[in-house]
Amino acid sequence: MKGERLGEFEEFTLLAVRALGDHTYAVPVQQYVEKVTARPTSIGSIYAALARLEQKGFLRSTMSEAVAQRGGKSKRVYTVTPSGLRTARDLHRVRERIWNAITEGGRP
Amino acid sequence: VTHQPRLPLPARWLLWPSPVPRESRAEVHADLLELFVQRRRDRGAVHAHWRLYRDVASLWLHPQPMGRTGAPRSTLAVLHDVRGDLKYAVRLFARQPAILLLTIVGLSLGLGIATAAFSMMNAAVLRGEGVVDPDRAPAILRSTDRSVATAWVSDEFLHLREGSTRMQVEAVLMEGARVGMAASEVDAPVRDVAFVSGGFFSATGGRVIAGRPLQHADEQQTGLPPVVVSYVFWTSTLHRDPNVVGRTIRIGRTDATIVGVAERGFSVPNNRLLWMPLTAHHAVYSTEHSAPPIIPRVLVEVFGRLLPNVSLAEAEAQLSGVAAALPGVATTGESAVRVKLDPHTGLGRMSSSDALGITVFVFAVIGLVLLLAGANVATVLISTAITREREMGVRAALGASRWRIVRQLVTESLALGTIAATIGLAFAHWAIPVIATMIEAPAGVDLAPDLTVYVFLGIVTLVSGVGAGLAPAWHGRGADLLTPLKGEGARQNRVAPQRLRSLLVITQAAVSVLLIVLATLFVRAALRAATVDAGFDATGLYAVSVGLGSSGDGSVGIRNFWARAISELQDVPGVAAVTLTEFTPFGDGFKHSITRETPARVVYLNRTRAEYFETLGLRVLDGRTFTRGEIVTKAPVALVSQSLARTYWHGQSPLGQILPQEIPLPPTTAPGKTSVIPAPRPVIIGVVADAITARLHERSAFAVYEPLDPASEIFARLIIRVAPGTTGIVQQVSQRLRAIDPQANVTIGSVAAKLEQEAARPRMLATLTGFVGLIAIVLCVIGLYGLTASVVGQRAREMGVRVALGAEPRDLLRLLMWDSLRPVVIGLAIGAGAALLAGRVVVAAMFFGVSPQDPMAFVGAAAILIASATLAVLVPTRRAASVDAAFVLRRT
Question: What's the whole-model pTM score?
Fold first, then answer.
C-alpha cells in the first residue's frame, strides 16, 4: 500500500481527471492516459486507480444524469478534490526540486 | 428504427461472472461498449475486439470495487438485502393467506412423506446394520457338488478358525430368548439374541459407547456369562441407565452381566438386541445348572474378515484347503467340501434383489410425492407470478436487475420451503411410528431420523425451494418493461408459459393416477388375499414353541419332554389333535428349495410327524403317511403335495418313485453323528392335499414332507388343533407344559392370526399407496384450483368480448373447462401408462394374482381424478363464465 501517497499510475489518472476538466468518467480518462503515456492501458486498471484515489480522498464521484448516447445508462463522474490537487502539486514540486538540483550539479 | 450497437455476446458472457460488483455492472458494460464502438470506428474491428477482451480480462486482474468509498460490501449488507426480501415476502403472503396456506400444506405433506419414507429406507437399506467395510466381511459358505449352505456344524467352524491364515473366521448363531430384568419375572418378552464367537465385534467393526465389546477371553469365561446390549435395547428397555455396565439381566435360564452397550446403528445380524458368547448358549437354554462354557454342537453361520492386503480369491483358496481336510466328511461319502466367500450374504444382509426391490419402490414413492409437491408449489407460485407480472414490471422499470427479481422469488419459495420442512419434519416424526407399526418393523430397528435424514431433508428443501422459485422466474423471462405497465389489456398469446403450466398440471395428474391405480390394485389384492385358500382351516390351530434351545444335555431329555407333552396335551379337554413339526404354518422360519428349472419353482420343505396331516386337516389323497419305524430310523421317504405330484408325474401315481433331481435338498446330519451328509433322495410314499404354509403371496403349494427324526426334535414345535367352542385352552396348555419343565419358554401363537398377518401385507401396501395417493389428489386439486382461478381471471377481458359478441355463459363454461381440463386428461393417459409399467415391474409379486391391467383400478382412478379435477376447475370457471361484459370492458 502506498498509504496516502500517489503511485505513478495513480498520479497519471488523477492528473488526467484534472486535465479533462473534472466531471469526467472512466472512458475519457482511459483514452487520455493511453494517449499521453503511449502505452496500452486497460479499463480495469483505470477503474482500480479511480477507486483507490477515491478511497484516499483525492477524488470525489457522483452519478450523472442518464445520457442518451450511452443507451440511457448513467455514469459515475469524478472530480479532483482540493486534497488531491495539493498532493499532486506537492509531488510535482518535489520532482521539480530534484530536476533543478540535477541541472545545478547534484546538490539539493 | 435506429440500430443500437451492442457488445459482442462472448464479452457479455464473460462480463457476467466477473468480480465487478453487481451495481456497477451496467456502468462497466456501457463503458466497454463506448470504447468498443470508438475503437472499431478508429482502428477497425480486429483491434476493437482485441482491446475489448483485454479490458474484460483486466476486470479480473483489478477487482477493485468501483466508486465505493469505504469497505467492500460486507456480508452484513447482503443479509440486510435478504431481510428486505423476506420482509417483502411476508407482506406479500399476508395479502394472500389462502394461497400461502395451500402451498404450505401441500409442501409439508410432500416433504413429510418423503422424510418418513426416506428415514425408513435409511434404516432398512442405506444405513445397513453397522458392519464396517462390509465388502471385506464375506459370508463363508459351505459348498459341495450338490449344495451351497450358510450353515456349518460348530466343530467345522472351529477347524476353519484354527486353519485360516488369510482371514479372521467368526461364527454367529441367531436365537430368541426370554429377556427379563430378574429371574422372578414371569413371561418376559422374547428378544433376538446373537450368540457369537469371541472375535465377532472386531471382525464386524462393531464399537461400544459404554463398557467393552465381547472378546476372545469371553469364550472361556466361567461364572455369569457376559452380554453386550444394543443401543435400541439400552434406550428402550434399560431407559438409558448410565450405570448399565455391570448390571445383571435375566436371559433364558441364566443371569448375565452387561459388559457393554453397542453404538447406535450397530445391530448385526438382523436387528439383534443382545450379543452373548457362543459358549453361553448352553447356560441360556440348558436345564442343567452351572453349565460349563462350551461351544454347543449346532449349526452356526460363519463369516470372516479378510486380513489386510488379502484378496477374496486368495482367502477362498486357502480356506477351501482347510475345509477339504475336515474330519468326518470323507467317511460320510460326501463330496469334498469347498469354501465359497460371498460378500453379499450372511450377517443378516438382505439378498440384493430384496433390498433393490424395496429401494426401487420406496424411492419411486418418494420421487413421485416430491415431484408432485414441487410441481404444486411451482403452479401456485406461477399463478401468483402472473398476477405479479405488473409488479415485476414496475420493479424492473425502477432498475431492478433480472437477478434481483429472481432472488426475490427464490427467497420467497425458500422461506415457504423452510416453514414447510419444519412442519414436514414434525409430520414425519408422527408418521414414522405409525408406518412402522403398519409394516411390523422388528423391535431392533432404529427408525428415529438421524443426520443422514436431516441432510436429505435439507437438500430436498433447498432444491425444491430454489426450483419452485426459478420456475416462475423462467416463466417471466423475456418480460419486457412496458407491456405489464400498460395494464391488463395487452397480455395475450404467451405460448411458452402456457406450455409450462400445462406441463406441471400434466405431471401432477399423471402421478396422482399412478398412485391411485397402484392403491386400487393393492386394495383388490388385499381383498383377494383374504380369500386365498391356504388349503387348511387355520381357526383353532395353535403353534407352540418351547424354548428348549439346542441344549447340550443330549436329546434324550428333549425327547422325554415331547413325549410327555404330547400325551398330556392329548388329555386336555378340547384339544382335538397334537403333532410335532419342524416348521409351523406361517411361523418364524421355513425351508425351501428352488428347483433347477426355468422358470424355477419354490418348493417348501418340512419335517413332520405322521399326525401333522390329520392335525392340519390335509387329506391324504394317495398312499400313506409315515410309520413309527420310518420316523425313528429317519427313513428316506417323503410325502408330496398334490400339485407337485401333478407337475412332475403328470397324473400318474408318484408312489414308489424317487423325488426328482430337479428339487435339491439341503444336507442333513447323519443319525448319531455331528457331521453333515448329502440328503438321500427320498422315495414318495404318499400324496397329500395342497396347502400354503409359508409366504402367502407366493401362493406356492409345492411341498415335500419328510419324517421328523428324534435327533431333529430339539428344533421342533407343537401344533395343536382345538375343538371349536373351547376356551381357555392357551392357559391350560401353557400350565401343563410348565409343569413338565418349569423353565420352559412356552410361546403359543394362533396360526389363524399369523395367516391374517400374512394376508395383511397387501393391505399395508394399499394403505400406504392409498394414503399417498390421496395426498397426491389433494395436492393436484390445490394446484389446479389456484392455477385455474388465476388463469381464468386473466381471461376476464376475453370473456367479456365473447359475451359482447353473443356467446352464452354455457359456451364460455365449456370453453374454459376444456382448456383447464385438457392437461389433466393428458396427464391421465400418461399416468395410466406408467401404472401399467409399474404394476408389471415393481410389485407384481404382491398382487396375489390380481392382474396389473385390472380395468377396475384404471377406470376407478380415472373417475376419481376427473371428478376431483372438475370440482377444482368448476368453481373458478363458473365465476368467470357468468361475467358481466359491460363491466369488464368498461374497466379496461
Answer: 0.53
